[in-house]
Amino acid sequence: MARQKRTPCPETDALGAKLGKTILRLRTADRLSLGDLSGMSGVAKSMISQIEKNETNPTLATLSRLSQALGTSVEAVLGANEEQTALVEHSQPQDIPVLHSEDGLCKLRIIGFIDTVQWVQWYDFTAEPNGILESSAHPNGSIENLSVLTGKLEVSVNNDVWQVKAGETLRYHADFDHSIRNIGDITAHATMVNILAASIRPQS
């Protein structure tokens, strides 16, 4: 069955266009064909082409594979700007990058400052019942801080599993593959702050 192209949304269309241009710019700068990037990332050539043309909304997993293949991060790709960014920003709702889980039930809004993503990453996280956000390991030594505002979540890291509910905060090593699942019957809402190894370990 043919893949359906997305219906443009006024709030996300500008972000999608920026994302597509950034992927195209990075790919051409590295002198990579669509086939080259597809082979390196595992993302289909047709999907990459649609992203570059702003014809589809890629998932977090897809952006992660593409950014790794291009030698950068998801946050850097979403925040890429050829002009210097101001130290202080006033972001409108349409300026906030939004990522979705593979199942489409979780939403991750990147509300942290793009220029500091190599040290700290700050997200607004929501998940519908049974929604799960699966993440690959962050750099060694990274710590993830999850503060639940509403609902109940289950966090799995390596072979360990914890439950955390509204009003509670869970801090855990995120340098393993990990996942967050909504195990309640209402939409869960949380804030997530990732402290990366670069900010907690002195540089040699």
Structural account:
Helices cover 27% and strands 28% of the residues. Strand 6 (152-157) and strand 7 (160-165) form a beta hairpin. The protein is built from 6 helices and 10 strands, in the order αααααββββββββββα. The longest helix has 20 residues, at 10-29. Helix 1 (10-29) packs across helix 3 and helix 2 packs across helix 4 (60-69). The model is unreliable at 1-12 (pLDDT under 50). It has a 6-stranded antiparallel β-sheet. A 4-stranded antiparallel β-sheet has the order 4-9-6-7, with no helix packed on it. By secondary structure, it is α+β, with helices and mostly antiparallel strands. It has helices spanning 10-29, 34-41, 45-52, 60-69, 74-79, 197-200, and strands at residues 98-100, 106-110, 120-127, 132-135, 143-150, 152-157, 160-165, 169-173, 178-182, 188-195. The radius of gyration is 17 Å and the shape is globular. The protein starts with 9 loop residues before the first helix and ends with a helix. The chain has 2 domains: 10-79, lambda repressor-like DNA-binding domains (434 Repressor (Amino-terminal Domain), Orthogonal Bundle), CATH 1.10.260.40; 101-200, Sandwich (Jelly Rolls), CATH 2.60.120.10.
